[in-house]
Amino acid sequence: MAHDTYVQSGTFTENYLHKTQSRPFSLHHIHAPHDMQTLYLHCHSEIELFYLVSGKINFYIEDKSYTLNSGDAIMVPPNLLHYADKRYRDTKDVEFYAIVFSTDMLAEILPSYCERYLLPIAYHATECIIPIYNSPSETWQADVFSCLDNIFDAMDHDIKYNELIIRGNLLIIWQLLYNNHMLALMKKTSGEHIQPYLKKCVDYIDQNYTKQITLDTLSHMAGLSTGHFCRQFKEFTGYTPFSYLNKRRISKSCTLLLNTDKKIAEIASLCGFNNISYYNRAFIKIMKESPSSYRKNFTYRS
Q: Is this model's pTM higher than 0.70 or not?
């Protein structure tokens, strides 16, 4: 497992799956010189556990920021824009480890009745941003760091001798994060009895984002009035129904922009936008640049 060199990229959505020898995860060890940005702005469909070994940084996820010191870590949920830079006037280089893994990494290990452990990250993504601070008073956080050490110690060895160590330690970390953070998210959601119906709506959007989806269709599916549905959906996912739909469509359009030579108007249509101007505005709002600029600036990172 090779150690990464520091690379700056112009893209936001990464154009490859994070894998190590075909496994659904990748391990990274990066030194970022003090005169360069620590971590470029990007997002990916996998979960990331970022572990700061040395340096002091500000870590940004969507519109939130977190201060991390040496020995701290943070969990980044899927599909959220994130980047990091060193703290003001800090002249030291930054070193960090990261493991990026698909939810399949956990789902394929767990029996079906354990699906509830994955629901928070799927449907409360913005609330599953979890800073993990190097505090001796928090036993569970110390246990997380112990597992992270076990995972990253395996980087220099053949995967076939360490895969179960990596997977096992990830499961322990997930249980600790679930017990100490994610479980509370599920409990505080009002109307727990309607969560399966909201999940059905989210899955429907994920599978039918190319079609015209109405609020009436979704609220009827959940068995709620439109107003009550909108409130419950936002509490469940962190987004309004149409904000969630737009994020899904834009994410899919990014893949087409980078992997095909289709015209932007065609891509917009294929992803459910019937108005190119609206697509451009939605893209800029979410990705911070136009579709044409996004495609032009893309640089493949090997």
A: no
